[in-house]
Amino acid sequence: MRDVAIVGVSQTKFGELWDKSFRDLVVDAGMEAIHDANMQGEDIEAMYIGNMTGGLFIGQEHIGSLIAEHSGLTPIPATRVEAACASGGLALRQAVMAVASGYYDKVMAAGVEKMTDVEDATPAIAAAADQEWEAQQGVTFPSLYAMMANRHMYEYGTTREQIAAFAVQGHENGSLNPKAQFQNKISVDKVLNATKVASPLTILDCSPVSDGAAAIIVVPADEATKYTDNPIYIRASTQASDTLNLSSRKSLTSIESTKIASRKAYDMAGITPSDVDVAEVHDCFSINGLIAIEDLGFFEKGKGGQAIEDGLIARDSDIAVNPSGGLKARGHPLGATGIAQVVELTWQLRGEAGKRQVDNPNYGLSLNIGGTGGTAAVHILSRDRS
Amino acid sequence: MRDVAIVGVSQTKFGELWDKSFRDLVVDAGMEAIHDANMQGEDIEAMYIGNMTGGLFIGQEHIGSLIAEHSGLTPIPATRVEAACASGGLALRQAVMAVASGYYDKVMAAGVEKMTDVEDATPAIAAAADQEWEAQQGVTFPSLYAMMANRHMYEYGTTREQIAAFAVQGHENGSLNPKAQFQNKISVDKVLNATKVASPLTILDCSPVSDGAAAIIVVPADEATKYTDNPIYIRASTQASDTLNLSSRKSLTSIESTKIASRKAYDMAGITPSDVDVAEVHDCFSINGLIAIEDLGFFEKGKGGQAIEDGLIARDSDIAVNPSGGLKARGHPLGATGIAQVVELTWQLRGEAGKRQVDNPNYGLSLNIGGTGGTAAVHILSRDRS
Q1: For testing the chain B interface, which of A241, A250, A334, A378 should be mutated: the one with the most B CBs within 10 Å?
Q2: What is the largest CA-CA distance in chain B?
Q3: pLDDT tens for each residue of B195-234
Q4: From B122, which residue of chain A is nearest by alpha-carbon distance?
Q5: ipTM
Q6: Are A324 and A8 in contact (CB under 8 A)?
């Protein structure tokens, strides 16, 4: 198996991008990543696109061919990968395997979603849950995560304020990220008093409806310095599933797929959770950020809320979580998120993250989740090859 | 790169399966393939699912997690791959890379589609074309292929009867396949006088709306005989794209992605088109079967019609095409088709194809196409490892 490195990254601004179509977004991101890798379009040998639900949002499937055409990359193999909000993470994983296997040497992984072309995104998002056993019974995503929040508060004494603090920190970081959808700061009070979505979660606990795209170029680690002076190495790429249906799980306060994928990733990379300097975790709802930092082993189960409150995931702490602003503030164009997380880590490890730069990180970890944890993808990156 | 072999295959009956849900179908196929590979469910380490448009047909995305759960395979990585009607071929290709790379040793590739839960499948199928440039202008898939048929007749003198003869042969073979959706024979006259869909194509030139699933288990070639006495080796797995939009192409009578993917496949396998003994090609419409046998190099461009008429693709000819009945007679549950093609080739190479068995084939080739050729996936299999 060949080692794999990242030599180019990019992200469009995330937000309500009325002047950009689906195809514009991913072409913009792809071209910029190719430029960042000091390549030409014709260098790219294959591409993987993470996209959750082009079919329901814009009536478009067969997205690989579409993107290859509009990027001028036809006739390269172009494959769309889907796992709800983890689509981006899985697209990157396929790109890694395509290089690791020796099939290709220069592969793009991109993610894209155009969510604002429909009046109500909720029914399309519900397709990430179990349609027969959850969505058709009237359950929505906020309500699923609200149940998890209530249970976490009940089991561990986590406070409403601690959950809200995850979103507050996201906005704090997002205020320093020029590509974030929201660049305003918020307070715990503001979160608690915002419009209720599903008790206890308010609108400010929820990531927004977003348009956007992001892209990454991967090559064999042995060839990385041909393209860039600062390659970032992919030290682990793992994935696990859990039941799609939340009610089939043993626990509402922990996501088993995160635990399994992250433990495998630590093994692959030969590190422990305490070695991670910077992490991008999947806070589609604030409670999911809190659960993530526990399941990843950064903090003991039940202690995540206290850790947030104590500033232990801030940019200047031992483990900086979501310096980009996370899904809450950077925005959450579903299929793009898993790619954008790794783009942010690459910028952080290269020292190119501007005002939100974390102090000299070496190990970065991304956690990208589909649904309520039906899929989890974990990537560990480092500046050092081994 | 590790060589890869097929050790287990299965296909459900294809058809209007009112008593089977989406999840039933793929679980049935998966369990049978695992049994065929002499494995247990817990042996499977990862799975790839080809599915075109669960979102539009049944409101369900995040299909990997769903299928893993209902197959009892949670928490293995489960990834859905989509490229319209080539989704199955690409799912197999990812499974091949997952094994070739060394990431996994026992991987399932499955394909599934449940098309009969909606009243009209046409709008969902149209999502395989360019929504903005084709579908929104009123173009449907039969009309796109009808243009290709008209142009082929104009350029090469191909007759209407020759095109119809591809469908007639499909039904001839399908009549011997107990898993085919249609097991009745038809005649050229019957095709010509059937309900017109898009001139010159009639309903009997068109593959049907189908439910169904199929599955394949792949392992490293070095380990194949641990599971089965008759492993089938994957000698090539290739893929190419063309413009999604038909009007951007240089030619309407040839599919460039087929040519590129098949030439690469012949190189990978170290064979020429004349070495292929049995092929499963993508006859979503009869004209596409005709174009395929030309683009694959079985016959000269423009001579495909004559070859069909002369019986040169019959089961007892040098190259038996679509002994299963093809998409026309076996049925075409979109995401399942690319997997079902390779399942049929495996049965043929093993000598297990019953009444439709081709005489002692060694090399088999599958061509799975998305849209009007925006994606093409080619696999070459053989009984011999090299």
Answers
A1: A241
A2: 56
A3: 999 999 999 999 999 999 999 999 999 999 999 999 999 9
A4: A59
A5: 0.95
A6: no
